[in-house]
Structures are given as structure tokens and as C-alpha cells.
Amino acid sequence: MDGKGLFQRGRVAAATLAVSAVLIAGAMLALAGCGSTTTRTETVSLASASPKAHPQAINPVAGQQAQSSQPARDPVGDPTAHAMPLSQVRHLLTLEHVAVKADNATYINPLQYVNHWERTDQGVDANMPVGAPILAPCPVKILAVIPNWYAGQPLIYFELLNGQQAGQVQFVAEQITDLAQPGLILQRGQVIARYAASGTGIEYGWSTLNGITLARATTGYEEGQVTPAGVYMRDWLNALGANAGAS
């Protein structure tokens, strides 16, 4: 699966990448030093390790896909379709976004049914059994659905409504179907989407409220690149018991 992107480096990008990597490493060492095992329902507080977004004028673009471990299938939807303009995506997200404050509420692993973890890039790539659900990690609000994000496959944005990452936006994209509709508030454990019968696997990651993936908005992204935003997501999932391995 890949970088596809919604949404585009120099010395500033390189410096941001180095700082973000140090912050992430520090956060994980601090967690390890506590001498306790994080459970699926334990609060995850990696906000200080999150790469900080800075504006970039980028149009949403899709990169080439990595090989999936599953047998080759035709992508769902129309492979020639294009994502909607970034300005329209930004409008949809802003329309539904809720002002919430961080608290001590806990999260659950949203990807409990993954049967094969793949690479880290803009987010984390994975495969699941057909029909398996992607779960709300906490109460979430569905912000927008982009029907043709990559190869005719959709992307769904949702906002975390409590916990240490309250107010932050996540996305899951590509081989998904039965998507929850924009405006809905789902409770923890309810189904955001299900793994579709065909496509290019899923990507689960962080987004900005502008509709640009956090990876592109912070360090930029090139096809196949491991980004601090992607590492941050994998660490976040692992802290919830995802057993997603190292990046």
C-alpha cells in the first residue's frame, strides 16, 4: 500500500524530521521506564511526541502502491477517479469539527482484527479479513468521506472526542466499505468502516484539519518514506495492544 496522499522539503523538513524522531524516541523511552505494561484500555498520551503541522500548499496526490501480501485484486471503484479539491475537503472538515479538550479518558485498539501489518509511511498499512471492522478508539465524530481518494477507493476522516488526543483527526483509507456517514458521533467500539472484499489494503493515520495528512504537513512525504507521523501512529497503536511491530 502507499503513499497516496491527499495532500507535499529542504533543511526545514529535515530538521523537523530529526526533532520529531527524537521526541518520539523520548516518549517511548519514558513509557518503557515506567515498568508497566500498557493495556488496550489504558490512556495513551503521546501528544508531546506528535509532529507539529506547518502549512504547505499541496494538492492531494496519490503515490504508487506497495505490494500487498494478499493475492492481487482489482481495486474497488474507478482507478482513474480523482480526489475532490483540497479546498472542498478543508471545508467539509471545518464544518463538522468539534472544539473539545484533552482529558484522561482511555482508548481501545481500533485495528483489533488485523491479520497482517505492513509498512509505515504516511500512516500504518495493514490487511484484515474481509468484513472485519475498523473500530472507534473512543467517541468519535465522522467529519468527512472522500469517495475517490486512491484508485477509486475512499478515505474517511474522524475526530477523537476525548482522551489525550482529543480534537485530533485520524483517517482510514482505501480497502474499506460500509463507511459511517459524516456528522455521526460513534461511541467507543462502534464500527467506523469495514474491510472490503477487494482493493489495496488499508492505511490508518493522522490528518490535519486542513485535510492534508500529518506526514505531508510536517516533514513532507515521498513514496515509501517512513515519516515521524507514521511512526507516531504505529507507536500509538502498539501502546493500545495492537502488536503492530516496529516501523
What does this structure look like?
With 247 residues, this protein is α+β, with helices and mostly antiparallel strands. The protein has one domain (11-239): Glucose Permease (Domain IIA), CATH 2.70.70.10. It is 21% helix and 21% strand. The protein is built from four helices and ten strands. The chain has helices at residues 11-33, 86-96, 214-218, 228-239, and strands spanning 116-120, 124-127, 133-135, 140-150, 153-160, 169-174, 176-177, 185-186, 191-195, 202-207. A seven-stranded antiparallel sheet has the order 1-2-10-6-5-4-8. A three-stranded antiparallel sheet has the order 3-9-7, with no helix packed on it. A hairpin with an 8-residue loop joins strand 5 (153-160) and strand 6 (169-174). Helix 1 packs parallel to helix 4. The longest helix has 23 residues, at 11-33. It is globular, with a radius of gyration of 16 Å. It starts with 10 loop residues before the first helix and ends in an 8-residue tail after the last helix. The model is unreliable at 2-48 and 53-80 (pLDDT under 50).
Features:
Glucose Permease (Domain IIA); disordered N terminus; three-stranded antiparallel sheet; 4 helices
Distance between the termini: 15 Å
In CATH, what is the homologous superfamily? Glucose Permease (Domain IIA)
Determine the strand fraction and express it as a percent band: 15-25%
Count of beta strands = 10
Q: Give the SSE string.
A: HHEEEEEEEEEEHH
Structural class assignment: alpha+beta
Low-confidence stretches: 2-48, 53-80
CATH C-level class is: Mainly Beta
Strand order of the largest sheet: 1-2-10-6-5-4-8
- Mean of pLDDT: 74
What CATH architecture do you see? Distorted Sandwich
Domain count: 1
Q: What shape does the CA trace take?
A: globular
Count helical runs: 4
Helix proportion range = 10-25%
Largest sheet: 7 strands, antiparallel
